[in-house]
Specification:
The complex is a heterodimer of chains A (88) and B (239). Chain A has four helices and no strands. Chain A is mainly alpha-helical and 88 residues long. Chain A has a single domain (3-81), classed as F1F0 ATP synthase subunit C (F1FO ATP Synthase, Up-down Bundle), CATH 1.20.20.10. Helices cover 89% and strands 0% of the residues of chain A. Chain A starts with a helix and ends with a helix. Chain A is rod-shaped. The longest helix of chain B is centred in the last third of the chain and has 46 residues, at 193-238. Chain B has seven helices and two strands; from the N terminus they run ββααααααα. Chain B has a two-stranded antiparallel sheet with strand order 1-2. In chain B, helix 1 packs across helix 3 and helix 2 crosses helix 7 (193-238). Helices cover 71% and strands 3% of the residues of chain B. Chain B is mainly α. Chain B has helices at residues 26-46, 57-77, 85-100, 114-136, 138-143, 153-188, 193-238; strands at 12-15, 23-25. The chains are: A mainly alpha (88), B mainly alpha (239). The interface between A and B is medium-sized, with 18 and 22 residues.
Chain lengths: 88, 239
């Protein structure tokens, strides 16, 4: 196996693994956050404005870990520095 | 994979013949476009403001926007929104306009470029100490870096840097993912599926604009509020 093939195979496999593994924890975290927020809104409908705003900000914080994984996967697929170095 | 560009920086509009380093890429052009749209709309609406019983329709739109932003800033920071409205409101309006104009054909959101997102995050990074120093003075602001103990100094500095990075990459990743997914879907399901993803992209763009503005406000408020609490404690001590 020559090195471009090895780089291509490892990049594609790792990009898939990055998204697959990296989205597990944020998905669990977002699910827990949303369920807790719904419970709180059901208990205290008066505070729903504050809860919703805090929920959105918190979701964005949680989601950013998944976004990092997505950015890394996109770099591996479409802007791979090792691949570009080899093919130029 | 030439069809999928993960950044608008590589899309060159114009390049100087004599100086090849001078060029206009799509990010700059679309940023100028968004800026001119915002300025033109604001100028047209505020040209004749009325306080009478019949307010022009566009003026009430602008009033709804401004008063909504003031309410949100007051809710988040628990302070008078007047000082923060110019900065936070500009961030929100610019990002929201840049993201929502994505329904126009041929337009790519400039926020989908890491340069724009990093510039916006850098402005927040510099605004936090500016607001903090303006409210409490230089020494008072610096004291919050050693807030619980002196040992926390490196962690406070790292936290300040990493949240700026997170702010930039969050905006860039969300907007870039929208355009990349639309471009990939065009390849194998070009009929109706991209419309749904565009719809989702509009929602994401609006939420991201809101989150960017709220997070900027939270960071500024934390720099200002910690010091106010400290000052209150000192006042109690003296009194």
């Amino acid at each position: 196996m020559d090195s471009p093939t090895a780089i291509a195979i490892s990049s594609i496999v790792i990009a898939g693994l990055t998204i697959a593994i990296g989205s597990i924890a944020p998905a669990i975290g977002e699910g827990r956050a949303v369920s807790q927020a719904l419970q709180s809104i059901a208990q205290q409908p008066d505070a729903s404005n504050t809860i919703t705003r805090t929920l959105f900000v918190g979701l964005a914080m949680i989601e950013s870990t998944a976004i990092y994984c997505f950015v890394v996967a996109m770099i591996l697929l479409f802007a791979n520095p090792f691949w570009n170095q080899l093919t130029q | 994979m030439d069809g999928v560009q993960i950044t608008t920086d590589q899309w060159i509009f114009w390049q100087s013949q004599t100086l090849p380093a001078v060029k206009l890429n799509a990010t700059i052009v679309f940023t100028w476009f968004v800026m001119s749209v915002l300025v033109a709309i604001s100028w047209l609406i505020t040209r004749r403001l009325s306080t009478g019983p019949d307010v022009p329709r566009m003026q009430s739109l602008l009033e709804v926007l401004v008063s909504g932003m003031r309410d949100q800033i007051r809710d988040v920071s628990q302070q008078d929104p007047g000082r923060y409205l110019p900065f936070i409101g500009t961030l929100f309006l610019f990002i929201a306009a840049a993201n929502l104009l994505a329904i126009m054909p041929g337009y790519r959101p400039p926020t989908g470029s890491l340069s724009t997102a990093a510039a916006l995050a850098a402005s927040v990074f510099f605004a936090v100490p500016l607001f903090g120093i303006a409210s409490q003075g230089f020494a008072g602001y610096l004291r919050h870096y050693i807030q619980p103990t002196f040992l926390m100094l490196p962690f406070n500095i790292i936290g300040e840097l990493s949240r700026t990075l997170a702010l930039a990459v969050r905006l860039y990743g969300n907007m870039m993912s929208g355009t990349v997914i639309a471009a990939i879907l065009l390849g194998f399901a070009p009929l109706f599926v991209p419309i749904v993803m565009q719809l989702l992209g509009l929602l994401t763009g609006m939420i991201q604009a809101y989150i960017f503005a709220v997070l900027a406000m939270v960071y500024i408020a934390s720099a200002v509020k910690v010091l106010q609490g400290e000052e209150r404690m000192q006042d109690d001590h003296h009194g």
